[in-house]
Specification:
Layout: H1 2-26, H2 31-40, H3 43-70, H4 77-93, H5 98-110, H6 114-142, H7 144-164, H8 166-189, H9 191-195, H10 198-219, H11 223-242, H12 256-271, H13 280-292, H14 297-329
Helix pairs in contact: 1-13, 2-14, 3-4, 3-11, 4-5, 4-14, 5-6, 6-7, 6-10, 6-12, 11-12, 12-13, 13-14
């Protein structure tokens, strides 16, 4: 009961944070100008962008299949694709619930152990973070004239702070190492008692399942295909972010470099624990377009609003359709008996 109350309060707090950020983004905006942009926008570009989003999620499902097969289980492409779409729907409504929902639906549909499938998802996320980090480095290198001074202004205070707190850092690390040594010592002394504990066995079983899932990134047979799918996923993400620039005259001159920059920063907004990245995505997008690329505030607000709203509608519609197909229309038995 306490956990439910805590989760509800957390959800409400971050929802209010999203609303606050939306208010900060829109409070000084001339809505007449925004409506003019919304009315005259070329939505065909947005539809092409959503098509690219759907394709990228399909390649995400194909990539996930490779990891699942490495565990010795089989699954249908339709099941993994529908699970991915349902996961994005869940994240739109309840942040951080998507990956759990994704694995839960696949477990129910294809009888794949939840802990193992969740381990494969962790592997995917680690790899995606590495790709995102690589993209961030490329963006900084290609746009150093634009971003260099900002990054330097952020790093200098951090470096100075580290210099002034070397002793505290050494003490903290030493204390952490000592704590780990004590824990290992106690575990070795009481190993027979601890390992027989039911709670320990349950935790160990879950951890082993996670590790098995994570190991798949190294043990899978189709590494080349896995890398290809990863490149296609992020390639379509970039194109998906770039195409909507052509919706508005003021953003039509922006290219792939700007799209990669927006994608990287927008991803940070979407992963924030706010429903659908609401407010956070808008704040980051407007700051980048207006503050760095000189797009008028009304055009920047219109762009991020159309983009974000369209993607949320896409996730909601495809998520509901996938759920209905998966659990009400598809009567096939699980592949893994």
């Amino acid at each position: 009961m306490k956990k439910k109350i805590s989760n509800t309060l957390t959800y409400i707090i971050f929802l209010l944070l999203g609303v606050l950020l939306l208010w900060l983004c829109f409070r000084k905006i001339n809505f007449t100008e925004v409506l003019d942009y919304v009315k005259t926008a070329k939505y065909s570009w947005m539809l092409l962008s959503l098509a690219c989003l759907g394709i990228s999620l399909f390649f995400r499902a194909l990539r996930w299949n490779i990891l699942i097969e490495s565990l010795g289980y089989k699954t249908r492409v339709s099941s993994t694709y529908e699970s991915v779409l349902i996961a994005y729907f869940a994240n739109t409504v309840f942040p951080r619930l998507g990956e759990v929902t994704r694995c839960g639906t696949l477990t129910k549909k294809e009888n794949i152990p939840f802990d193992k499938s969740f381990g494969t998802v962790i592997s995917e996320r680690v790899l995606d973070l590495a790709v995102l980090f690589a993209m961030a480095i490329l963006v900084v290198l290609f746009q150093w004239n634009l971003l260099g001074s900002l990054i330097t202004s952020w790093l200098n205070p951090l470096i100075e702070s580290l210099k002034n707190n070397v002793v505290l850092g050494v003490i903290s690390i030493s204390a952490l190492i000592l704590l780990l040594v004590v824990i290992v010592f106690i575990f070795k002394k009481k190993k027979s008692i601890i390992t027989e504990n039911k709670i320990y066995k349950k935790i160990a079983s879950i951890c082993n399942g996670f590790l098995d899932g994570i190991k798949t990134i190294f043990t899978m047979e189709k590494k080349g295909l896995f890398i290809l799918y990863t490149l296609l996923i992020w390639g379509f993400y970039v194109v998906m972010t770039w195409l909507p620039f052509y919706m508005l005259p003021e953003t039509s001159h922006l290219g792939l470099t700007e799209a990669i920059t927006l994608l990287g920063l927008a991803t940070l907004g979407v992963v924030a624990p706010v429903p659908g990245g609401m407010g956070v995505y808008h704040f980051i997008g407007i700051l980048l377009l207006n503050g760095f690329y000189g797009i008028s505030e009304a055009a920047a607000v219109s762009f991020v609003t159309i983009n974000h709203t369209s993607q949320m509608i896409f996730y909601l519609i495809t998520g509901v359709i996938s759920y209905v197909i998966m659990f009400f229309m598809d009567r096939r038995k699980p592949i893994n008996g």
